[in-house]
Amino acid sequence: MSEAGYADQSTSKNKDGFYYDDGRDRTLSSKDAARRQLEEDMAKFLGCGGNIESIEPNVRADPPRKPESNYGSRPI
């Protein structure tokens, strides 16, 4: 098993030392293992004093901008 806790045929370590999933082993059991790992990590985070904030669905990180037109902006 890798550091991420998945059955390790489909996870590989890149040159930076991070694991990535190439999708070859996406079975129900691997998804259940990922869910269990997420639940354990959340419990550890909350147990160390972390909190989870709920954000409204309509909140965006970048506000909408006025559309720009560059039609005909090329010099003649």
Number of separate helices: 1
Helix content: 25-40%
Biggest sheet character: 2 strands, antiparallel
Shape: extended
Radius of gyration: 21 Å
> Order of helices and strands, N to C?
EEH
Strand order of the largest sheet: 1-2
Sequence stretches where pLDDT stays below 50 over 5 or more residues: 1-10
Termini, distance in Å?
63 Å
Q: Could you say which structural class the secondary elements and strand pairing correspond to?
A: alpha+beta
Mean pLDDT: 77
Beta-strand percentage range: 5-15%
Number of strands: 2
List the helices and strands and how they pair.
Elements: E1 11-13, E2 19-21, H1 28-47
Antiparallel strand pairs: 1-2
Describe the structure.
The chain is an alpha+beta fold. It has a domain at 11-47. It contains one helix and two strands, in the order ββα. The chain has one helix spanning 28-47; strands spanning 11-13, 19-21. The protein has a two-stranded antiparallel sheet with strand order 1-2. A hairpin with a 5-residue loop joins strand 1 and strand 2 (19-21). The model is unreliable at 1-10 (pLDDT under 50).
What brief labels describe this structure?
8% strand, disordered N terminus, two-stranded antiparallel ribbon, alpha+beta, 76 residues
